[in-house]
Design brief:
Elements lengths: L1 H6 L3 E6 L1 H4 L8 H16 L3 E6 L2 H9 L8 H23 L6 E6 L1 H5 L1 H16 L3 E6 L13 H11 L4 E6 L20 E2 L4 H6 L12 H13 L3 E6 L5 H6 L6 E3 L8 H9 L5 E4 L1 H10 L8 E5 L7 E5 L5 E6 L4 H7 L7 H5 L13 E3 L1
Parallel strand pairs: 1-2, 1-5, 2-4, 3-4, 5-7, 6-8, 9-11
Antiparallel strand pairs: 7-8, 9-10, 11-12, 12-13
């Protein structure tokens, strides 16, 4: 199955974690980076386009600044990122140059991808770089990022990049062999799972947290990334980046690491952007009739199904849709602001203009702008 799946792959996003790129002292491991770049060169020779989502900037900056303790303040993290990002780029540049390959630095925040126009601009830039034969090195812009505009971790960023770049595969390089039945550091009898056909709640519960002092992502974030990529119809392979030849082995279809198959029920790229890239601004609570109409009949959300609104949001914002039990089941772009939606709650569509004095349409959220989670 792996070899058949990989035949269609022409563009791959490779996410490389901090613990893969650094040695025991926390410094960039140039031997590992050189080996990885050699394997990426082999992929390029096979005609594959490669994008790299790389962690390691803060770790490199900490080492350069002589810091050993975990950074606890945002300014210190941003300073370390500013120092380390140049070191990280130089490491890739110097390691890929002997193979005749050039790199480009691409730094992103969630605001860059939250705007549809900037999202499309980022896609056009990546397409242009790949067209020139350049390997984009993508990272979160940690120098200026704050909690409100953070992706959270580079695992999440890598899943979003697969959508931005219209990639065909996500390859995650981590510091363990793949996804295990339990945490192998705690349970010696844990077994490596070769293939995950569907990311269930049991799979998500089995994923552990991060034990790293140089990275932010653990197994849970990697499984979440695979789930997001899978919703876009993209498979994910998770392997140990510490193993020599692992990238080539994975791309040749060998049974290494863990293959996460894409979801059988995917969404188009625009709806993937709505569901996973945009940050919801508020919540709309709907009654059972509206919930069933959205889930089972593919309908739009009418004002008559709205029970109440929580939080403030503008027209066109991404909002969470929740049932009477408070559980989120969908997200969408609202045609009306929070104050307007509150005034329209429970009314018929024909009454909208009479209530507001103006009219944007019959629905609060159109089906084309709504994603079932």
């Amino acid at each position: 199955m792996r070899k058949e799946l990989l035949k269609a792959v022409k563009r791959v996003v490779i996410k490389i974690g901090s613990r893969v790129l650094t040695d025991s002292s926390g410094a960039l491991d140039m031997a590992v980076i050189g080996r990885i770049c050699g394997e990426i060169s082999f992929l390029r020779q096979q005609g594959l386009q490669v994008l790299i989502v790389s962690s390691g900037a803060i770790a490199a900056g900490k080492c350069e600044l002589g810091l050993t303790d975990k950074l606890r303040t945002i300014p210190h993290k941003q300073a370390a990122a500013a120092v380390g990002q140049t070191r990280l780029m130089h490491a890739y540049e110097s390691s890929l140059a002997p193979h005749g390959l050039k790199v480009a630095q691409v730094l992103l925040t969630s605001e860059d991808l939250g705007s549809r126009q900037r999202f499309l601009n980022a896609r056009a830039t990546l397409d242009a770089l790949l067209g020139f034969g350049i390997i984009p090195i993508i990272n979160e812009n940690d120098t200026v990022v704050v909690d409100e505009i953070k992706f959270g971790d580079n695992d999440n960023l890598s899943a979003l990049v697969t959508n931005v770049a219209e990639a065909h595969l996500l390859l995650i390089l981590t510091d363990i062999e793949g996804f295990y039945s339990a945490d192998p550091s705690i349970h010696p009898d844990a077994t490596l799972i070769s293939m995950v056909k569907g990311i269930t709640r049991e799979i998500e519960r089995a994923a552990g947290g991060s034990g790293s002092t140089v990275g932010t992502g653990g197994m849970a974030t990697k499984v979440a990334a695979a789930k997001k990529a899978g919703k876009n119809g993209i498979a994910t392979i998770m392997v140990s980046g510490k193993r020599s030849g692992i990238i080539v082995a994975a791309m040749q279809g060998q049974d290494v690491g863990t293959l996460f198959l894409p979801s059988e029920i995917g969404v188009n790229r625009r709806k993937h952007w709505i569901a996973y890239t945009l940050k919801p601004s508020g919540r709309i609570i709907v009654d059972d009739g509206a919930r069933n109409a959205l889930l089972k009949k593919g309908k739009s959300l009418l004002p008559s199904g709205v029970v109440r609104v929580e939080g403030k949001f503008e027209r066109g914002a991404c909002v969470r849709l929740c049932g009477l039990d408070g559980a989120e089941f969908a997200r969408g772009l609202s045609d009306y602001a929070s104050g307007e939606t509150t005034r329209l709650a429970g009314c018929k569509s024909v009454a909208i203009e009479g209530i507001l004095g103006y009219y944007y349409g019959d629905v609060i959220i159109h089906r084309d702008n709504l994603v079932i989670l």
